Amino acid sequence: MQGIINGCIRQDRSSQYVLYKEYYSYGMAICRRYSLNDYDAADVLNDGFLKVFTHIEKYDPEKPFKSWLGRIITNTAIDHYRLNLKFSDHDDVDTHQHIGDAAAIYDQLAYKDLLTLIQGLSPAYRTVFNLYAIDGYSHDEIAELLKISAGTSKSNLFKARQKLQEKLALLGHKKTADVAVDDDNNIKK
Length: 189
Hints:
Elements: H1 2-9, H2 13-34, H3 38-55, H4 65-83, H5 102-106, H6 111-119, H7 123-134, H8 139-146, H9 150-171, E1 180-181, E2 187-188
Antiparallel strand pairs: 1-2
Helix pairs in contact: 1-2, 2-3, 2-4, 3-4, 7-9, 8-9
């Protein structure tokens, strides 16, 4: 791998192609989580790889390359979010109904189905959900990255979870028992 990276540092097109091909699926998986559709995800991915190739000399070979690349692609997705900042899909938390047993629905969904549900969230909800639930950022870190307050991050995460639960309930409406979700998003029977 270091030979390919050295080739990329020398701006060797064949090395760049090999690196792109090797990490395309990994990068695209990250981009799909943050994007509305595959076209937007591909746009983010290409911008991310451009940044990788432009700054590859800053990569520290003592650390895993995949982590470095993932961080750049995630940050590129956040940059795209900021450029296309739209908070048009805000709902009042009180308008959400309690949903059915989400656990039964999860068992029936494939990764692609979950990805489609996440992509259906507003950009603000989707970005906070991905950063917190999937990438493991804290609310303070999310607030700093997105230039919002930690309280807004928490609110967007709560609303994203509610929206996802509602969508899951609609998918499994006839297959689940009547249960409620408490304030901590725990299922109560």
